[in-house]
Structures are given as C-alpha cells and as structure tokens.
Recover the amino acids of this structure.
C-alpha cells in the first residue's frame, strides 16, 4: 500500500514539475520577444542599427529621396550638392538681387559657375566666400549667402555694373513687403520694430523727399541723406544695417536701439529721444498684425524692379 502511495506521489511531483517547466518556458519566451520588439523601435535607433548612411553627394539636377529600411515608412530629402539645382531653384531670387545690385543676370551666373569650379560646394555660400583663415563661410540661408556674394562682388569690381538711379514713386505697401521679406533673411531682427522705425522715419513710407533718395530709414552721411540707387537696395541696406550694427551687437529693445539711432542727452545721460520712442510705439499698433512671411514670388507679384 505504501509503495502504491509513494508511486502516485512521485508521479504527481514529476507531472507538476513538467507542467511548471512548460509554463515558465512559454511565458518567458513571449515576454522576451515583446521587450526586444519594443526596444528595437523605442530604444535602439533602427536606421543606425541597419547601417543607414547620411545623404551623399549628388550631381543630379533633381532632388532625390533616400528611403529608410522597409519597416520604417519615412522619407527624407537628400541634400543636393549640385550648383545647377540651386541656380534653377532660386532663379527668381538671383534675378531680383542682380537687378537690385545693378548687375546683368547672365554675368552673375557666369561668375557663380567660375567661383564654384572644382570647389567644395556649400549651398548657403554660392559665392564661395572664405573667412580670414581661408575657411569656407556658412550662412543661415541661400538668400543670406547670395546677398553677401553681391557685396563681395561690389568690392572686387570683377564684373561691370550698369548703375541706374531709379527714384521711387510707388506705394507704401511694396516697401513694407520688402522689409518683411528681408526680415525673413536676417532672422535676428524684429520685423514689427523695423517696420515701425521705417514708418516713423518716413511718414509711413510716404515722404516724397526720402523716397526720391530711396531712403526710408533716415540714414545720413557727411553729405546729408544717403542716396540709394533703387528702393530695393535702400530697404536692404536698412535691414542689413539693423541686423549687423544693432541686433547683432545686442541692441534689441526699442530704448537700446533709440539710444544709438535717435539719441538725446538728459542730465548728462544719453537716452533714446522720447518723441521718437512714441512715434515708433504708435506705429507698432499698425504693424503688429501684419503678415510675417512673404516669398520672393509674392514680392515680385506686387511690383517688379523696372
């Protein structure tokens, strides 16, 4: 009798051990599988694990798309390092600034090809400009680099300019749109403040004497009011000046700007002229709800450079 009981107990123990072992193996393998799946998507960068490489040099004139592994449905635009692509993409912009700086468009294109012949191409620096140590400059955008290229072209005198003086007789809206457009290039400036300062200085862009000089910001030289060749150039000079000499030097508040832009001395201290502060502050009421972005095509649709 004892032998039968012992045999039953031993059988039951063995059976329980087998069931427990099967349960542990089954649950354990499923848990590990779930953790591995979660980690592969949430913890481990899947693209790097599978050897996805950064976009390579492209000589195509068309943008290409690099696709990640099959289980990651995402497309990334490849960086195009071909000058032809950008000359075509920004053709309207190059034409605009060529006219602004009084250059023939075809001469500019020829010069850009020459500057980028067998050079390392950086699309924000299409003029291939270098710093004092001979290193290639990198700018915040194509437009920023293009403007610096034209200023460099002016200094080098390597291309003939057909300078034409064109006094402005148009409306205020175009000038306002120019400031909005340039402010999207010089991103450190406050667009509303620049619109308001210009309005305070030029009677909301309607004072004929200043418009005749294409000067809306009251810029002065030893010979009096600075005269610009066209309104596009005059407004660009204003925005670039504010970006480099004011905001770029930490003068960002209206009182700080006014202390240099329109100063007065009170009790031996140099401050912003209160009347000027009031004029600009009142103008801000008008411009605070203005459109904050405008494209070169929208700008050209308003008014073309003659």
């Amino acid at each position: 009798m004892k032998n039968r009981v012992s045999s039953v107990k031993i059988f039951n123990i063995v059976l329980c051990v087998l069931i427990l072992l099967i349960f542990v193996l089954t649950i354990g393998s499923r848990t590990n599988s779930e953790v591995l799946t979660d980690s592969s998507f949430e913890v481990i960068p899947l693209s790097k694990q599978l050897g996805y490489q950064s976009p390579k040099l492209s000589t195509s004139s068309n943008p290409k798309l690099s696709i990640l592994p099959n289980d990651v449905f995402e497309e990334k635009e490849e960086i195009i390092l071909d000058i032809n692509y950008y000359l075509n993409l920004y053709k309207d912009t190059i034409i605009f600034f060529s006219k602004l700086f009084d250059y023939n468009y075809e001469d500019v294109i020829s010069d850009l090809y020459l500057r980028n012949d067998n050079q390392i191409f950086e699309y924000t620096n299409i003029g291939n400009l270098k710093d004092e140590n001979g290193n290639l400059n990198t700018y915040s955008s194509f437009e920023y680099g293009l403007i610096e290229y034209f200023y460099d072209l002016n200094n080098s005198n390597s291309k003939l300019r057909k300078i034409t003086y064109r006094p402005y007789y148009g409306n205020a809206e175009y000038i306002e749109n120019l400031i909005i457009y340039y402010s999207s290039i010089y991103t450190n400036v406050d667009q509303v403040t620049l619109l308001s300062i210009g309005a305070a200085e030029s009677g909301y862009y309607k004072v004929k004497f200043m418009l005749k000089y294409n000067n809306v910001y009251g810029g002065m030289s030893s010979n009096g009011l600075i005269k610009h060749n066209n309104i596009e150039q005059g407004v660009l000079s204003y925005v670039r000046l504010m970006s480099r000499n004011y905001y770029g030097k930490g003068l960002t508040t209206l009182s700080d700007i006014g202390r240099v832009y329109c100063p007065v001395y009170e009790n031996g201290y140099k401050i912003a002229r209160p009347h000027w502060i009031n004029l600009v502050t009142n103008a801000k009421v008008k411009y605070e709800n203005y459109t904050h972005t405008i494209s070169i095509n929208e700008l050209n649709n308003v008014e073309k450079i003659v």
Observations:
- Residues 58 and 159 are 30 Å apart (CA to CA).
- The chain has four domains: 1-44, 54-81, 83-156, 172-302.
- The beta strands are 65-67, 75-77, 220-221, 224-225, 263-266, 269-272.
- The longest helix spans residues 2-42.
